[in-house]
């Protein structure tokens, strides 16, 4: 048995997790910062970094305690070193390097997006690779060919706003609280997804890239009037807002599902996996699962606990990298951009 401590501080969640053999999650502690950032309508890097400094020691200690694990029981420490908010990443990377030095443990550097791509396999005994990986989060919307846990090739990515960013911006347009994803999902549950025909941007024929800036602008003009950015929200009742949320959400989901199916046709694969923060969206999960079922494809979605930023997926991928000899030195740095 190989036991990995994972550390995640890429954005606004401070997380630590203990995972055995990349599958068995013994603990997954997440300290959310939503309350700290809500009044600003988004994540403030300086506030996020300070909160990581204040909370990380206690989070790591709790992860070890819940897992009934001592430092001597660990085989390695895995940490997110990219992508994310650079000041926030530095906190986690520095902590991981310090613990590796103090406890004489190997260090493993993990790409956060790569970890999302393999997160649907956590707690599964069977292998689900190769697969098309659809990763939908606040900062990234991408399609990958996932050949195996440590082999992944990007097929497409967002050219502007990621789906999660569009959810946050549309929530702001509709006067809904931050974070926008869960609020849009909640409002949409009471609305008619066919009320407004918002655009579904597919880009060039055969393209596996994404663009969600157009639909954000379409919602803005629908609310306020063409070319206007204010003045229309106060005229909308609760049902009208619910209908807009539902129609917007359905348009985004339609694009995501169509692109995933296009990737299946282009690669000839027969399995789709779904990960990332927006993977917790109920409409997306149900729609993609139903389409995969109609086409006779395998479908695996990350469990809700492993959709948002969490250290379990970092430790899980860290296990596979460690098993393959992919370790880092104490000179490891943090990077804002993904390596994928």
Q: Can you characterise this structure?
A:
The protein is of the alpha/beta class and 340 residues long. The chain folds into 2 domains: 3-119 and 309-323, ATPase, nucleotide binding domain (Nucleotidyltransferase, domain 5), CATH 3.30.420; 128-302, Nucleotidyltransferase, domain 5, CATH 3.30.420.40. Helix content is 41%, strand content 19%. The protein contains 10 helices and 10 strands. β2 and β3 (24-32) form a beta hairpin.
Task: Outline the fold blueprint.
Layout (H helix, E strand, L loop, with lengths): L2 E6 L4 E8 L3 E9 L1 H4 L7 H22 L9 E7 L3 H18 L3 E5 H7 L12 E6 L4 E8 L2 E7 L5 H11 L6 H9 L24 H12 L13 H30 L3 E5 L6 H13 L3 E4 L9 H13 L17
Mean pLDDT: 95
Gross morphology? globular
Order of helices and strands: EEEHHEHEHEEEHHHHEHEH
Helix content: 40-55%
Q: What fraction of the residues are assigned to beta strands by DSSP?
A: 15-25%
What is the number of E strands? Answer: 10
The first-level CATH class of the largest domain is given as Alpha Beta
Largest sheet: 5 strands, mixed
Instruction: List the strand order in the largest sheet.
Output: 3-2-1-4-5
């Amino acid at each position: 048995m190989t036991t990995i401590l994972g550390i995640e501080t890429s954005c606004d969640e401070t997380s630590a997790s203990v995972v055995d053999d990349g599958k068995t999650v013994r603990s997954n502690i997440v300290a959310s910062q939503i309350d700290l950032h809500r009044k600003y309508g988004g994540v403030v890097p300086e506030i996020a970094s300070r909160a990581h400094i204040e909370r990380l020691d206690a989070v790591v200690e709790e992860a070890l305690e819940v897992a009934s694990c001592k430092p001597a029981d660990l085989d390695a420490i895995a940490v997110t070193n990219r992508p994310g908010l650079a000041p926030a990443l530095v906190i986690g990377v520095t902590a991981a390097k310090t613990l590796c030095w103090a406890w004489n443990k190997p260090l493993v550097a993990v790409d956060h997006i790569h970890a999302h791509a393999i997160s649907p396999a956590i707690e599964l005994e069977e292998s689900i690779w190769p697969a098309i990986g659809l990763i939908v989060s606040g900062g990234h919307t991408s399609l990958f060919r996932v050949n195996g846990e440590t082999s992944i090739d990007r097929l497409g990515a967002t050219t502007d706003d990621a789906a999660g960013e569009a959810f946050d911006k549309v929530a702001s347009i509709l006067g809904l609280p931050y974070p926008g994803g869960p609020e849009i999902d909640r409002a949409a549950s009471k609305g008619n997804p066919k009320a407004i025909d918002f655009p579904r941007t597919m880009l060039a024929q055969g393209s596996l890239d994404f663009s969600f800036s157009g639909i954000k602008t379409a919602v803005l003009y629908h609310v306020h009037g063409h070319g206007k950015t204010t003045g229309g929200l106060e005229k909308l009742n609760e049902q009208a807002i619910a209908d807009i949320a539902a129609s917007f959400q359905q348009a985004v989901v339609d694009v995501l599902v169509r692109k995933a199916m296009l990737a299946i046709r282009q690669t000839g694969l027969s399995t789709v996996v779904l990960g990332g923060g927006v993977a917790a969206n109920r409409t997306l999960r149900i729609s993609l699962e139903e389409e995969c079922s109609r086409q006779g494809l395998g479908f695996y979605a990350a469990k809700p606990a492993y959709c948002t930023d969490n250290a379990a997926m970092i430790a899980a991928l860290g296990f596979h990298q460690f098993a393959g000899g992919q370790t880092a030195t104490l000179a490891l740095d943090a990077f804002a951009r993904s390596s994928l």
